[in-house]
Amino acid sequence: MGHVDHGKTSLLDALRKEKVAAGEAGGITQHIGAYQTTTQNGVVISFIDTPGHAAFTAMRARGAKVTDIVILVVAADDGVMPQTVEAINHAKAAEAPIIVAINKMDKAEADPTRVKNELLQHEIIAEDMGGDTQMIEVSAQTGAGLENLLEAVALQSEVMELKSNAERGGEGIVIEAKLDKGRGPVATVLIQRGSLRVGDVFVVGQVSGRVRALVNDLGEQIDMAGPSAPVEVLGSGGVPGAGDVFSVVETEARAREVAEYRERKAREKSSASGPRAASLDQMMQQLKDSDAAEIALVVKGDVQGSVEAIVQAAEKLGTEEVAARAVLAGVGGITESDITLAAASNAIVLGFNVRANNQARTAAEAAGIEIRYYNVIYDLVDDLKAAMAGLLSPDLRETPLGSAEILEVFSVSKTGKVAGCQVREGLVRRGARVRLIRDDIVIHEGELSSLRRFKDEVKEVNAGQECGMAF
């Protein structure tokens, strides 16, 4: 895992090229988002290329512990970036040990010491600084340090004593699944325990089937796959979801029974439960009913200073019975990935002078996650305090009337600056409260003092029309 453009995929390509005999026609086609390489000492390692963090979080939300070890890729010339921090949060939440690969060491401006110092802020301490995290300097371009990286993984796995019984029935996790035109439903499965053979009857999520064929990461058909092997499985009755658990069962009747039971349960759950408890008052009620005493928060703000202040204030509010913990604290608008993380951690989302984009709003509605917006830190802290005391008073709700996009700004002698706008959705009404948002960050709040269409002052303007506004 790591930040965009820090060289995750090129590092994986380099690791794979080293291990694949050059004799194969044109190298190798990558079939699966996971594949195996072997170290010089014969240790087999399976790599999963995490397709963005959102997918990784979604898998975690389903309770899937997919990886044993996380390799955090950080570019030596770029240092720790926002997604690096996000990756660290995900790895810590999944309780997976981290090995840091400091990539792009072939560049002139590479500075590994800076990377190590920046990682200190996130409690990741290199071995040479007295910590327990292995940090390996590599270059995907020149291939330097790759063998050391594989040895570090092998060493970490020895420490963790990763073992599995290969004789029992296969069990694993679906990494991805798709509907293939020629082959039907295809699930990429990472075997975690036991062995999977052609002809085995299995159940995965809400579908069942019989293994028609197994395809390994080299695209070859195989008869059996052992623990930690990534394989494509053909023969399921439908397309399972990423993160579903895959289990071998004795008979087809049993498989169908389990699949039907799960499907029924899922239907009941979706009709009965509605949104989960991810609003403050519901969460406090749940905490009262259980003994678990922790409010998880996702905090996003317009500047780092406010975000840090909010996180510190929230942590100080903790009492013996209940504590607040920030799962993620970052700068910028609220994105879909924040909502996914909130759903996975059952957290509430707090926005300080920022707004959620459309995808995030839709995702939040679907998952029943409450997003609370604030522009005064004290209000936010008071709300949290009240929530922790279990006394949330009815809050001031805003009803969005509509939104408009500013196309041009004019200077008018009497009124000053006027915004020429097009109304995108809903309607715009004179005298309503307005908020100016640039890049999901609130830059002004006030009242709509003047609303004109052509030269005339009007009361309201509907979607699709253009108008002039003064604030």
Give an overview in words.
With 471 residues, the protein is α+β, with helices and mostly antiparallel strands. It folds into four domains: 8-160, P-loop containing nucleotide triphosphate hydrolases (Rossmann fold, 3-Layer(aba) Sandwich), CATH 3.40.50; 171-272, Elongation Factor Tu (Ef-tu), domain 3 (Beta Barrel); 280-389, Rossmann fold, CATH 3.40.50; 402-470, Translation factors (Elongation Factor Tu (Ef-tu), domain 3), CATH 2.40.30. Helices cover 29% and strands 33% of the residues. It has helices spanning 8-19, 52-61, 82-93, 112-120, 146-160, 252-273, 280-289, 304-316, 336-345, 358-367, 377-389; strands spanning 34-38, 44-48, 70-75, 98-103, 135-137, 171-180, 184-193, 196-197, 201-204, 207-215, 221-222, 224-225, 230-236, 245-249, 294-301, 323-331, 348-352, 371-374, 402-412, 416-429, 433-438, 441-447, 450-453, 456-457, 460-462, 466-470. The strands form seven sheets. It has a six-stranded antiparallel β-barrel. Strands 19, 20, 23, 24, 25 and 26 form a six-stranded antiparallel beta sheet that branches. Mean pLDDT is 82; it is low at 20-31.
